[in-house]
UniProtKB/TrEMBL annotation:
<feature type="domain" description="NadR/Ttd14 AAA">
    <location>
        <begin position="21"/>
        <end position="182"/>
    </location>
</feature>
<protein>
    <submittedName>
        <fullName>ATPase</fullName>
    </submittedName>
</protein>
<dbReference type="Pfam" id="PF13521">
    <property type="entry name" value="AAA_28"/>
</dbReference>
<dbReference type="InterPro" id="IPR027417">
    <property type="entry name" value="P-loop_NTPase"/>
</dbReference>
<dbReference type="InterPro" id="IPR038727">
    <property type="entry name" value="NadR/Ttd14_AAA_dom"/>
</dbReference>
């Protein structure tokens, strides 16, 4: 992994960034829409590393795509998520991450067998509550950047749920409801009005 060691050394001074909130879960479950609404309402947000990587790879050689080389894609996602954490230093506001280090580590484990806990050992933790979008077949779509089908997305969700629980986070599954209600649900559980 290109810069992960150097980045993790810069991040490891803190064991937790309590205002860094991870949004994870099923692909096609509404995370990007939710992130856009959180940003619209004034929260700091960080877009999904995977989508950014796929967009870049489709413009170039396309070698680090999840459907071409999952291990290379996951390693690159881990590096990008580490950079995102390093850049997002504000402690005054919530910062919401659309996927992040945990998602990348779970993908890396799926591709290579590298244990999630060992991959993440040098990185600070997110807020203790992680929000997951559940599988939602009615809104699931495939596109140029998301080529997995719903069954693959559900399998990924199951891996994420298991790993996040094993890491000791408090998992909160988001309701299948409007984006405005999801934002309200998240902020209430974070203790915001």
């Amino acid at each position: 992994m290109r810069g992960t060691t150097a980045l993790s050394e810069g991040l490891s001074g803190s064991t937790c960034r309590p205002r860094h909130v991870l949004l994870s879960g099923c692909s096609g479950g509404g995370k990007s829409t939710l992130l856009a609404e959180l940003a619209r309402q004034g929260s700091a947000t960080v877009p999904e590393p995977g989508r950014r990587i796929v967009a870049e790879e489709l413009l170039g050689s396309g070698s680090a795509l999840p459907w071409v080389d999952l291990a290379a894609f996951a390693a690159r996602a881990l590096d990008m998520a580490a950079e995102d954490r390093q850049k997002a230093t504000s402690a005054r506001t919530w910062t919401f991450f659309d996927r992040g280090l945990i998602d990348a580590a779970v993908a890396l484990q799926h591709a290579t067998g590298a244990p999630v806990a060992e991959t993440l050992a040098a990185f600070p933790r997110y807020h203790r509550r992680v929000f997951l979008t559940p599988p939602w077949p009615e809104i699931f779509t495939r596109d140029r950047e998301r080529r997995q089908d719903l069954d693959e997305a559900v399998a990924e969700y199951d891996r994420l749920l298991s790993a996040i629980n094993a890491l000791g986070y408090h998992v909160t599954v988001l309701p299948r409801t409007s984006v405005e209600e999801r934002v309200r649900f998240i902020l209430e559980r974070l203790g915001e009005p």
